[in-house]
Amino acid sequence: MRAMKYTLNRTLLFLMLIPVWTFAATDPLETAVQDSLQANEEAQKSQQHIDTLADETSDLSQEYRATLEKIDSLKAYNEQLEKLIAKQDETLLSISPQLGNAEETQRNIIPMMLRMIETLEEFIALDMPFLREERQDRLGIIKEMMDRPDVSLPEKYRRIMEAYQIEMEYGRTIETSSDTVFHNGKDNMVDILQIGRIALLYQTIDGKESGYWDKKEKTWKKLPDDYNQSIAQGISIARKQSSPDFFKIPVEAPEQSK
Q: Residue range 60-77: average pLDDT?
């Protein structure tokens, strides 16, 4: 009986030791595996964190370089702007005396332009009567423009000088136009031939009568019939229907000096 109890106790002790030995034998391996897995997981997290920091550092570096470039560009712009402002200050100082005299200059130049318009009007009235409507219209536009505040002073002066230039050109051209001529107590529709300011001639539409403007008597006078063909040729040349050529015209003899 005692021997069986002893044997039973040893058997129970052996059975109780088996789980303990098994746990003691397997626990270090599992712990090592778990530690390795955990270390790998932490290493991956660390690498991801490092990669994130590297990307952020790269972005910050690029942003920093871009900021430096903007600063350099702004510095160059500011330097150029300072030079421009300095140049404008110099210009303003140089024209300040002129600005002070601008009002006085305007008071002087406006009467001068008005005198130029009056002289032009008198010249047209005394000149040979060619393109009368066109010339009067141009003169009227200039007069009306002088009373307009929306037209600058330089523009008014330019238009007056342009009118003078056109009048000068009339003295160097051969022109033809249609107009009415008061002759023999009635108005007659005719072709006008203007040869500079040397001669102003007319010819009826049927080509049977020709005449000239008498500068002294300020009237139209009839020409002999043998001028008809020559004046018709001149009209054709002025219209660019014929090549330039010589043709006969009446020219008043110059006045003899006393």
A: 71
